[in-house]
Amino acid sequence: MITRLDDALGRQEAALTLRAQRQQLIASNIANADTPNYKAVDLNFAEALKRAQAGQPVTGSPPLLRTVARHLPPIPVAGGPAGAVDETASALPSVDGNTVDLDAEQARFAENTVRYEAAFRVLNGKLRSLLAAMQQG
Asked: Where are the domains of the chain?
C-alpha cells in the first residue's frame, strides 16, 4: 500500500518541494540585489526533478560566501538540491560584481509561484481522490 501511495504522490510531492526550494533561492537573490559581489543562483528544476525521481538525494545547498570579514561565517544548511543549483547569467553586469537582475528575478518569482500553486492543487486533488476512494471502499 505504501509503495502505491508513494508512486501516486511521489512526483507531485517532489515537484512541490523543489518549487519551494526554488522560491527560496529566488527570494534570496531578490533580497541580495544590492549586495556587492553576490552571485545570483537558480534551480535547474528539470535536473533536480530528474534526480529526485531517480531516487538520488536532493540535499545540499549552494556555497555561501563571506564578502565582508565582519559577516558571520556560513552555517551549512540542508535542503537545497545538490548539483542542480547554478549561477544565473546576468544580462546587465554590475560594477560592484552583483549579478542579480531584479526584473528577471521578480518574473521568475511570479512564474514559480504560479507553478507552485498548480503543483499544490494537483497534489491536493490526488489526496482528495484517494481519501474518497478509501471512504467508499
From this structure: 2-136
Element (H, E) at 120: helix 102-136
Element (H, E) at 85: strand 85-87
Note the pLDDT tens digit of each residue in 49-58: 888 777 765 5
Distance separating alpha carbons of residues 25 and 45, to the nearest angstrom: 12
Ramachandran quadrant class, 60 (left: phi over 0; alpha: psi -120 to 50; beta: rest): left
Say yes or no to pLDDT of 18 above 70. Answer: yes
User: Using N-to-C axis directions, what is the helix angle for 2-31 and 45-53, rounded to 10°?
Assistant: 150
As a whole number of angstroms, the distance between CA 106 and CA 109 comes to: 5
Rounded to 5 degrees, what are φ and ψ at 87? -65, 145
What's the pLDDT at 69?
A: 77
Opening angle at CA 43, ends 30 and 50, nearest 5? 160
Which pTM does this prediction carry?
0.73
